[in-house]
Amino acid sequence: MSNTISSVLRLKCPKCRQGDLFCNKKTYQYKGFFDMPKKCPKCGQDFQIETGFYYGAMYVSYAITIALIVAVFTALVVFNLFSIELFLLLDFIVLLVALPYVFKVSRSIWIALMIKYDPKAIEKYERKT
Ligand SMILES: [Zn+2]
Fold first, then answer.
1. Tens-place pLDDT, residues 40-84
2. Which of 18, 42, 68, 111 is surrounded by the fewest CB atoms within 10 Å?
């Protein structure tokens, strides 16, 4: 389970957990930000499973965004600092900083829900090619 989570957070291929899901590994570099390879360079897993496959990842990113807002709210209440201005300001900052990663990790979560881990994936792929 912890391996699944770590591979999801590191934006790795869900099948082999070694290939990268995104061409551009720098979260805060805009150029080529959305680009994903057509398939995993290590195990050949298809990353463009079907047209519109990643629309579902939007729901994941909504969920993460809401979780972040709730976390900001809770932190302010716990530290007795709550004011609506501060809440909105912090939300803005947190979301601005987190959004590129949230976008990528949502896709990573989404594809990991659909594709099962196969410890022999790379071996099999190499035998085929
Ligand atoms: Zn792979």
1. 999 999 999 999 999 999 999 999 999 999 999 999 999 999 999
2. 18
User: DSSP 3-state assignment of 98?
Assistant: helix
Tens-place pLDDT, residues 75-111: 999 999 999 999 999 999 999 999 989 999 999 999 9
Provide the whole-model pTM: 0.88
Treating both helix axes as pointing N-terminal to C-terminal, what angle do 84-114 and 56-78 enclose, rounded to 10 degrees?
Answer: 140
Ligand 1 centre distance from Cα of residue 17 (Å) = 6
Rounded to an integer, what distance in angstroms lies between the CA atom of residue 107 and that of residue 33? 13
Which residues, other chains included, contact 107 with Cβ-Cβ below 8 Å and sequence gap of 6+? 21, 36, 54, 57
> Which residues surround the ion ligand 1 when the cut-off is CB under 5 Å?
13, 15-16, 19, 40, 42-43, 45
Span from the CA of 45 to the centroid of ligand 1 (angstroms): 5
Q: Which residues have C-beta within 8 Å of that of residue 86, sequence separation ≥ 6?
A: 76
Distance 51 CA to ligand 1 centre (A): 20
